[in-house]
Each structure stands twice: as C-alpha cells, then as structure tokens.
Amino acid sequence: MSGVRLAVISSEPLSVDQVLGAVSGPTFGGLVLFVGTVRDHDEGKSVDHLAYSSHPTAERTLREVAASVAAEFPEAALAVSHRTGDLQVGDLAVVVAAACPHRGTAFAAARRLIDDVKSTVPIWKHQRFHDGSEEWVGLP
Prior knowledge:
The protein is α+β, with helices and mostly antiparallel strands. Helices cover 29% and strands 41% of the residues. Strand 8 and strand 9 form a beta hairpin.
C-alpha cells in the first residue's frame, strides 16, 4: 500500500518510531527518514527559545502537500509529523519518511516532501536569541 499514511501536526513530542512504522512494509527496499531538530544557533546567534505556531488550516494543508507528493511518486509510502508549541534545543521539530521499492525514489520523495512542507504549510517559527533579539521565520 502506497500513498500518504500519516500527516499530522501535534503539540506533543514527535515519535520517530510512529513515522517509521507508518511507512514500513515488505515491498519497500528503500526507506528515507529526515528528522529536523531544534538547533542552538541560527545565523550566528545563540537560540534561547523557539516556538512553532500554525494556522488552523495547517494540518489540512499538510495532508494536501503530502497527497501532492504521493501523486508525483505513486510508488511511495509517505509520512510526516510536525510539532507546534514551545520546543527546547534538541527537540524534534519535524519527522518525514518516504519508503519506495528503490532508494533513489525514496530519497527524491523524502526531499520533495520536506521541501514542500517547509515552503507551503502555514507553520511559523518564533525564535528568541541570547542577545535579547527575536525573529519570526516563515511568515508570508
């Protein structure tokens, strides 16, 4: 079974096992996992705090983005989970998986999925830096 198997936005900690389990299967020879974590710096500044917020339609948009990628890669099983709320350095922010019969397609599908999620889904990052400055990332 291919297609979108999981597409969720959650205020709870993300589970790599949940995402991997969603795309596992005996027909897939390649499985690519991308895990985005909160880093302690951005553009040369130390990050003290990070929070993700999302538009009420964000989960629907996430599912639509995943469905679009699934249409482009019909042999792929896809899963994506994105976090919202307050996160600490090292926390999981996004987990994406693509499983396909062959590794090349799995890599391409995973790359397309994370890139399209980051560029399309209305999720915004608010960062506060050690120097007292702050910024929003991803606002239209």
